[in-house]
Amino acid sequence: MKGISRLFFSFLVFGALISNCLAISEQRSYPLLVTYWNTKDLERRAEFERCFKENIANKYIGKIYVLYEKFDGNAPDFLVDPKIEIISWPGQPTYKDFFDFANEHLKDQVVIVANTDIFLDDTLSSIEKLDFTRERLVLALTRYNVPEYKGRWRRHVRSMDTWIFKTPMEYKDARYLIGKPGCELAMLDEWIAIGYNVSNPSLTIKTWHVHLNDARECRPGNRWLGVRYAFTPRSVPFTRI
Predict the structure, then answer these.
(1) Which residue, 214, 207, 211, 224, is CA-closest to 152?
(2) For residues 167 and 103, is the Cβ–Cβ distance under 8 A?
(3) SS3 letters for the chain?
(4) Cα 223 to Cα 44, 123, 187, distances in angstroms
(5) Superfamily (CATH H level) for 28-231
(6) Opening angle at CA 57, ends 208 and 22, nearest 5
(7) pTM for the complete prediction?
(8) What is the per-residue pLDDT across 67-112, written as a single tens digit (0 to 9) for each?
(9) Is 169 exposed, middle or buried (0-12, 13-18, 19+ CB in 10 A)?
(10) Where are the domains of the chain?
(11) Distance of CA 83 to CAs 30, 41, 68, 73, 79, Å?
């Protein structure tokens, strides 16, 4: 009987391991949510186009959902692709807007939210190893600048431009405009208060920033969220998967 019991226990353990592996790796491409607006800066538009083309070509990115600000029905050619779905949006979206969309339309999926001037490479495949549900995990990734960047910005642990999570995403407020300086630190406070494990494995997952100078377009979301987030010590250290 002892031999049978041990054999039965071994089957249970093996079955649990197989189930866990399947749960982690069953999703092999990931929906991406971004915003877009009709910028008058032609250089900036070209940078956005480059990012969309790179993300369309990435086999680990599935559908790309574009919250198009004040969409008039005329999309640029680079947004006309079977992989892209345009959603007309009344203005600059907040984290809440992205989370609500993902919770409603992308249920029980690992989802990416990124700034418009970000593209991801094949290192995205590394998230197959992660169990977002069991670990209550949110990834907040610090970008790399493309090699031709000539500005002064350098990678640091208080700046994140890409967020990866599994729906449903919980939040308290999240009414922070995407791209507004300090928005990621405000959202980080919320996630930690809720009990999420926020990680920055940007030493493994590479996200690339295409903005070849430090000039910013004049938009309401380009002003700092507040003094608190300009000087907060809150950060997410670089790690690996």
Answers:
(1) 214
(2) yes
(3) CHHHHHHHHHHHHHHHHHHHHHHHHCCCCEEEEEEECCCCCHHHHHHHHHHHHHHHHCCCEEEEEEEEECCCCCCCHHHCCCCEEEEEECCCCEHHHHHHHHHHHCCCCEEEEECCCEEECHHHHHHHHCCCCCCCEEEEECCEECCCCCCCCCCCCCCCCEEEEECCCCCCCCCCECCCCCHHHHHHHHHHHHCCEEEECCCCCCEEECCCCCCCCCCHHHCCCCHHHHHCCCCCCECCC
(4) 18, 32, 16
(5) Spore Coat Polysaccharide Biosynthesis Protein SpsA; Chain A (3.90.550.10)
(6) 90
(7) 0.86
(8) 999 999 999 999 999 999 999 999 999 999 999 999 999 999 999 9
(9) buried
(10) 28-231
(11) 12, 25, 15, 18, 9
What are 61's two structure tokens? 């990115």
List of residues 6+ apart from 25 with CB closer than 8 A: 128, 129
